[in-house]
Amino acid sequence: MTAESQSMEELARSIKGLAGASTADLVGIAPGSEFSAAELGELGEAFGEVKSIVVLAQRIVDPVQMVRFYAGQAYQESHVATSFADAMLKSTCWQVVEVLHQAGVRAAAPRNLRYGDAAPRHSLSFKKAAVLAGFGAFGRNQLVIHPKWGPWMMLRTVVTDAPLPPDAPMDFAPCDHCSRCLQACPAGALSENGIDRDACRDQAGYVRQSSTVIRLSPHGRINCDECLRACPIGAAPPRLALAEAGS
Ligand code: SF4
Ligand code: SF4
After folding, report:
1. Is the CB of residue 88 below 6 angstroms from any atom belonging to ligand 2?
2. Rounded distance, CA 221 to CA 74, Å?
């Protein structure tokens, strides 16, 4: 083992040591070589070569983690929008960035594409990175399915030019003959061909009596999660009661 690979092993160990000791429950590493220049966009331009992607996951056990808040009048148009789980996980991303900077390598925490950005400057899929890092496999609901937690994870990443030793993808096929998530989708947005993102987004814009969106305040809400709740893998958190939400 060369001195560089040994130091990268040690660096990976110290980053992974944050799992369970921070707001991240899982920390893994995906190889940057699996992502094209188009996917990396300005991240690749800034780093020259993104050699590794550190992937972080927080398990969702409480509906409050899924409360989303945003700065503008409409969620989709807000430049600043996040969920509590996402905000908590981001704090650990900064810890990872700090560890990497202290080791003398470059690192940054890219923006999560799900939160409205009119002109995204990269298209790095956190889900693809999570599958490559061995967190689970893609499900028919288009989410990463962890063998124990199911789809109940919030994901984030840190990109770096450090050649960290990558983890291996998991040999796991969660869906088999199941199609519960397709049947549960109130917008008909899911099919064998994938997801109709516009239909899913439209669903997220409604506030209804038997709500899949609970509006907590002009700037806070809980989105539809029926395709997660339908999944037989993992335990869904309780629904936030309408009375509790003040709706
Ligand atoms: S979040 Fe709701 S609308 Fe979107 S795919 Fe899942 S079940 Fe369908
Ligand atoms: S509900 Fe069934 S088909 Fe959908 S992601 Fe879960 S296991 Fe796969």
Report:
1. no
2. 11
Give the alpha-carbon dihedral of 77, 64, 188, 231, to 10 degrees. 140
Q: Which atom of ligand 1 is nearest to the CA of 228?
A: 6
Question: Residue 191 Cα, ligand 2 centroid: separation in angstroms?
Answer: 12
160 phi and psi, to 5 degrees? -150, 155
**Ligand 1 centroid vs 222 CA: distance in angstroms?**
12
Helix (H, G, I), strand (E, B) or coil at 183: helix
| pLDDT tens series, the chain, 247 aa | 677 777 999 999 999 999 999 999 999 999 999 999 999 988 888 778 999 999 999 999 998 898 887 766 665 565 666 888 999 999 999 999 999 999 999 999 987 765 445 556 788 999 999 999 999 999 999 999 999 999 999 999 999 999 999 999 999 999 999 999 999 998 899 999 999 988 887 665 443 434 456 666 767 777 788 999 999 999 999 987 654 544 4
How much is the pTM? 0.89
